[in-house]
Every structure is written in C-alpha cells, then in structure tokens.
C-alpha cells in the first residue's frame, strides 16, 4: 500500500499524533530517548555511537599517519592536545612516541571493529530495520535489547577511560597476541580485556534477540524465502556473533588470568622478558591464544561484511527497479558462507609453524569460502543488467561497494594461499586488502544505508548535492589511501612501524650501505601521499556530518511514507514509525523485490499488497 | 503494543520466545565452555612430562558434589511439574530443595575444596643436592618409625615418593613415569610438597639518612609526615631526626617498614631499611609468593627459612628450608601450573553460573518474582521451564568437568 490514498494517510497521521501525545504522558524523556526499550531508538543510539567511534578511530589513524610520514616532528594542531591530555612522557613537545603510536594502533583496530562497524552495520541497522522488514512490533526481548546497548556503552566507556590511565591504553595491537600482551607492564591491556568482555556480552544479548525475533516474530505470510536479503544477512551475522564470540570471551578470561593472577596459559616455559626469567610456571601455549582469537576474528570479518552486503542488496533492488537477480542463490550463499566462516580461521596463522597439513586444510577451506562470496557479488552485479538505474546518493555508494569489495576480495586470494602468504604476511599488502573489504566496502554500505533509511527515521531527506560531494570525495581519497599500500606491501614494507618503515629499511642486514634503504624512495615517499590522502578523506567527511545533523530539522520533507517507492515492509509504517511500528494489520502476500511486475499498475508491488 | 508469542508457542516453530532465547543462549554457552575444554586439551597434550599435576583432587568430594548437582537438576524439574499442576506450595518446596543443593555445592567448593588448596605448597629447590638432602632429612623420621599403613621403610622411601609422584602426574607406573622421575630426581626439578608450618621473618630497622630541602616539601609538612611514622607522637623528635638522621623504628615488621619508606620518600627523606634479626612466626600462610620468601632487604632475605611439613609424612617429616635454596614456591593456586590455572578458571566460571542461578531462583521465590504467577500463571511456568533448561546446562557442564579434572 503506497501512500497514494490521501484520506488513509491523514487518518494515520492523526492517529500517530494521538499516539505520540498519549505516550508523552506515559513515558518520561529518559525512558523515551535514553533508557528506551524501543528497537528504533536503540538502533539510533547504536548508530550514533557507531558513527562517532568510526570518526574517532579515523582521527587516531590520521594522527598516526603524521608519525609515519614525518617521524620525530611535532604533530600539527593535535600535538599540544596530546601532550596536555596524555602527558609529556608519551607526547613530549607534541611528538608522537612509539609507545603512543602502539596505543593508537591497537585502539584504532579495536575501536573500528568492535565499537564502530559492528554497532553501526549490525546493531544499528539491524535494530532499526529488521523488525520493520519482518512486520514485527518490536524485538522479541525489548528489555534485553536495552541491556545489550548499555553493556556496549559500558564497554566503550572502559575502553575510552583506558587512554587516560598511567601508561595509556592497550599496546599489543587489536589482535593482542600473547606473550607480548600478557607481559606489557602497563594496565591498558587489562582494561582492554574487561572492556572486551562487556562488548562480547552486548553482542551475545543482541544476537540472541535478533535470531529469536527473526524466527518467531515474522508477520503472517512472511515465509523464509520472502524475507528481504538484508534480514537474511543479519540472521546469519547474528549466528556468527552468537557462536564465534564466546571463544574470544574464553580467551579473554584466560589472558585476564595471565595478567591478574599470574597464570601461564599463554606463556611458554623458560620465557625471558627484558633479560630476566619471569616468575611463572610456564607450560602455556602462545599458539592457543592465536587459535582462540582467530576463531572469533575470522567470522568477525563476515560479521563486518554481511550486513553491508544486505544493505547494498536492498538499495540496488530499489534503485534498479527490478528484482534482485538470483535471490535464492544469495540466500544459499550467505548460509554456506556463515558455515564456512567457522573453519577458515587458521589462515591467519600460516607463519606460526603450526604444520603443513593444517595449513593445507585451512588453505582449502579459505579458497572454498571465496565461492559463496563471489556468487553474492555476481548476483548483485548481474542485478544491474537491464535495470532503469536511479543514481541517487545511496545508490552511488551501493554501486561503489561492488568494485571496491571486489578488489578487497580478490587481493585476499594471494593471502589465502600459504605459499604467497609467506611473502605478504604482516605487510602493508594485508592492510590494504582488509581495508578494501571493510572501508570502501562495509563503510560505503553503511553510508548507503544512512542515506537510504534516513527519510524513514526522520521524515526528511538528506541533501543530495552534499551527498554527492561526500561520495566522490570519499571514493577518490579511499583509493588514494589504500591502492598505494599494495605497492608498499609487495615491496616488503612491514606493518606496525611508527616511522613508516624508515629504520627497518636501513637496518636490514642484507643492506651494507646504510645510506640507501632497501625500500626505494618511491615506496617510502608514498607514506607522505597516503597521509595527505587520509587527511583529505577526513575533510570530505565533514559534509556528511553537517548534512546528517542539518537534515534532521531542515532537510527536504518526504512526500509520502514510501519516498523511494520500495516494496519491503518498513515503508508500510507511518514516518517516523511510532512505538509499536505499524498502525494496521500487516500480512505478507509476495516476494520481497517485486519491482516492474508485468501488468502491474506501478513499477513496484509492496509485499503487503494483497493479490487481486 | 503487545509482542506476540511471549506466552503461547508460535504454531510453526513450536516455541515461545523465551524458550527459543534460552536455547540460543545455551548454544553460546556451549561455545564458551567448549573453548575452555579445548584449551584444557591443548594445554594438557602440550604439557611436559611431570608437570600436569592432576592426581591431587579429592575424588570423593568431587563425586559427592556431582550427586548434589544431579539431585538439584531433578528437583528443578519437580518444581516445574508442580507449577504445571497449579500447585504453588509444591513448587516452593522443590525450589527450596534446588536452592539448598546449589548452596551446598558452592559451600563445598568455596568453603572447603579451594581454601584447603591455597595453604598447600610445592617448593622447587635450586639444585639436586639440596633437594636430595632435604628429602632424606624429611622422610628420615617416617622411615625409622614407618608403621603407618603404606608409609615407607628405610630404602623404600624413594620408591614410596616415586609412587606419589607417579599417581600425581602419570596415573600409573610406566616407563615414561620412571624416566620422568629419575630425571626430576637427578636434576632437582622435583618439587617438595606440603604445608608451611612456620617461617622466620625479618625484623626491620628503619633509619633516616637524610632530607632533601629542595624536594618541594616544607619543613613543617616533612615533620608532620615524620610524626605519623613515629611510635611516639613527638614533634621535637621529628625535627631532630630530620636534621641529624637516626633510627625511626627498630625491629618493626615488613609492612610497617615499607609503608614508612614510601610515605617518607614522598616527603623528601632518604630512608634505609636493614634487617636487625629474625622472628619465628607460627602460621600457615595462604598463597605466598616466591618473591616474599626470596626478597632481599639490605643484603639479607626477608624470610630466612621456612618450616615445611612434607606430604604423607604423618606430621613427622618436618624440614627447614633456607630461603636461599628456594627457586620457586607456590600454593596450589592458579599460578601454580597450567593444570591449576585451567582448573580454577573452569570451576570458577562454573561456580559463577551456579551463583547466578541461585540469585535467579531466589528472585523467583520472592514476592517480586511471584507477582507474575498471580498475573499470568502460564508465563510464570514458562519462566521456570526456561530456568530449568539453564540449570540442566550448568549441571551438564559439571558432568563434563568432573571426569576431566578429577578422574581422567
């Protein structure tokens, strides 16, 4: 039912106003906007926090890029701030120390993955859109949903506080490999572990809620193969979180024991730190940490990517005005992908000496998992064929997702083969590869989702012009940042070096003439251009931020409840949807993407429209 | 707004929301404990021979606790069955029984099993000679009066201890156990096990050696800091000490001395600690660190010797260990070995689940929890059913824990 019938709409509007009025009497400001149990409010809380942390995490790396391009020089603008906030032993005179670089590096990864993308792509869109798309009044467990958000929030607070404790936040990278992470004497790692336990608890509560909601609260007629692809993607993502996160929780508990109670789960016999024997029993296994960590962290990659794919599928179906090509293959692929995601983890560990047989097994599964990924990407690509494409901002981001994610995926193949990984392991090539997957991949999908669902959330559109400025700027600078990193990595530049590899290049034992580095000037010079592109990238995000807040009050008002003329159920609600979502009985009669059905009056037939 | 299927099951899935939710939660719990069990396997398989100290568990207590939990699992079902028949009094009866079992289980763990381990020590000595000397010394008494059942006689002492060693690390005698024991015996890597009955701790003199006027602390503030540390609250003495130096305290205990050293250091003083003598302390300390026994104070050890009672010596194998001979000392606490590490981690996490279960059960017995019964009987019954699923899971975890930690 599109919003063409004027009287019905007015009736809805009146009812909605009445509802709102009614609720103001019932619920205080705190219950409505802060400690809310409404899935839409929680979704927006997650979205706001997620985007804020994405920005903050980006600022960390933008600061680090200065150290890589101009090591030993004071950081302009933020240098004095660092010195004032974090103390002059880590940022004397505004110069970033290697320790601070390590802190920022570890926290950049942690914040982007666990506090940025997961909340924004999975929790925010999942919370806001999934119940609407399946025709549910709310999540299955609204109070647990609120608990999930506040556990997340508490975890974030612990992570942020750890920046300001003596010695600063965690320094052992987002992967927190032991024994390094266990023996660093500052308390940052302990805070990190406690923060992670809170974030994992939040994910657990969220995942249970999502799965229960999708299984049990689908509207009448919403069969499994009538679910929009976005819901399928979220469903599988929730299973990944449910089953992959607990082993990291176990690993976190063990590392916490190592740090606080001096056990030796990850500390081998005869460990020497700083020239001294450590007073521990030994007998532990550093490899155990890596297994437990990557058992989460590889499925985590799909947690980051699948919601993005779901968003892109929605936007592409809507803006090509034709059904997604191969919907059933998409669903099948995402299910297979969810399963395979659990048995590929050790391809991160080829260099640990775990043995050729195990390497061969994980190499095989890793290449297998590329099949469903390619099927998904191909389906989305073929969907464009013959469509009458509308090039609006969400669609531009969704379109850019396809080649960018494609680059990310294909450059992963040399890392999946263990013989080529030996050369590329821990180099800038790896950084470029996974950033292509998550930055112009998932983050572009998040942008597409924000521009696409913003009218449903607020009743106004975001500015199309500034949206395009944001899109083209982001696309260009994203590639200027990450494309050169492939070259750096293949030239042998290692990751995690605060001077951008200068010392490493000169201290190479094969290189007798210390005045000439093993990395060429061109490769080292790319550090400067990449950094410049990163700062430009920061600037082109400003139009988005301003656009986002400005449009809430001043954007162009939408003309109906279904401004994109879409088919899925979230557009059947009033705008913005009230508590309880639907103002009429919802029943589903057809598949999710019935666009341009021959013989239909309009080029879209909503799922809730009864058959004649 | 009403969320569907909170009470009645959805026809096509056959589940009400909470039941679906609890099963999903349990799936994630399986992964959590599964990861810990996998860690157990990996650590155990990778352990050096003679380091996996598992033959120390009290099988009888563990088996008893297993029975207690199994009984509680039965009671939790009976409580639910009573609710199904609308009998609140019957529910309460069986629920109290469940709670009683859970509390008994935790009491045995927290009140007996763990604390008794925290006082039991292994000591590794610096070299094989010291080990063999102390070993002979300790079991000498036992050997000459060896009439305690299977206790040792004369030359059989070594054989006897080998048996203890074998049960502890290898379950049964084999070529491997023989080799490992010979190796540990020759190289002195064998640990002596037992209780600390007493120790000789340093009595420390605290002496002021100077005061820096330029440390940013005023004279009055420095004197004030000094007065706090003096035995007698005497301001005149303080000024004298600041100017001329001298003894602040004599023969004081370690903690007081360290506190004084820190506080006075903050106030600009330089402080010297020296050991004046040793005092015998009759005590059974909990979870002592190696550092405590071997710490150096002004060139002398903080603890000069430990009076140690060897296991299985029936209060006769008492030896005195010089702190200087001790390489490592640890109670049966998490840091003792990877076995005890994983033992406390898994049983601790399990105990936390039992404790959480007790809180939920109590909630469902109080008026605030029972309110739901009076509003909607079916929903309350469902809630108890969901809790029962959780409780069975907690029980099941223990069923796996018991054999891998006590028997295998």
Fold and architecture overview:
The complex is a heterodimer of chains A (612) and B (408). By secondary structure, chain A is mostly helical. Chain A has a single domain (17-267, 284-572), classed as Cytochrome c oxidase-like, subunit I domain (Cytochrome C Oxidase, Chain A), CATH 1.20.210. Helices cover 64% and strands 1% of the residues of chain A. Chain A has 20 helices and four strands. Chain A has helices spanning 6-26, 29-34, 39-69, 79-86, 98-133, 142-161, 180-183, 188-216, 229-260, 286-320, 327-340, 356-383, 393-410, 413-416, 418-424, 428-458, 464-490, 502-506, 521-540, 542-554, and strands at 272-273, 276-277, 460-461, 556-557. In chain A, the strands form two sheets. Chain A has a two-stranded antiparallel ribbon. A two-stranded antiparallel ribbon of chain A has the order 3-4. In chain A, a hairpin with a 2-residue loop joins strand 1 (272-273) and strand 2 (276-277). The two termini of chain A are 13 Å apart. Chain B is α+β, with helices and mostly antiparallel strands. Chain B has three domains: 19-118 and 338-407, Four Helix Bundle (Hemerythrin (Met), subunit A) (Up-down Bundle), CATH 1.20.120; 120-194, no CATH class; 197-326, Ribosomal protein L7/L12, C-terminal domain/Adaptor protein ClpS (Ribosomal Protein L30, Chain: A, 2-Layer Sandwich). In chain B, strands 1, 2, 3, 4, 7, 8 and 9 form a seven-stranded antiparallel beta sheet that branches. In chain B, strand 7 (303-310) and strand 8 form a beta hairpin. In chain B, helix 3 runs antiparallel to helix 11 (338-363) and helix 7 (219-229) crosses helix 8. Chain B is flat and about 90 Å long. Chains A and B meet through helix 8, helix 9 and helix 10 of A and helix 1 and helix 11 of B.
